[in-house]
Design goal:
Length: 80
């Protein structure tokens, strides 16, 4: 029974990871595209800003999900 619960919990974590990863990838790519349209004139620079935004989105999703998988707590100063 415990094994079934662990598998269900792992599936929930992977679902959350995919949801967060796709959402951040899309939002950061769209932000990069908008910034590229406003700031740059050449197509290569615009594509580079889209790729940069996508990389930031995937990296931030990976970092957050890695902490969730490991069960690590975020570093927050606690008031005593």
């Amino acid at each position: 029974m415990a094994e079934s619960k662990e598998i269900h919990n792992l599936n929930a974590k992977w679902d959350a990871f995919l949801d967060l990863g796709v959402r951040r990838f899309v939002y950061s790519s769209a932000t990069g595209a908008l910034a590229g349209l406003i700031l740059f004139r050449s197509p290569a620079s615009r594509w580079a800003s889209i790729a940069f935004g996508a990389g930031i989105g995937i990296g931030s999703a990976y970092t957050e999900c890695s902490q969730k998988f490991d069960g690590a707590e975020t570093l927050v100063a606690k008031e005593e």
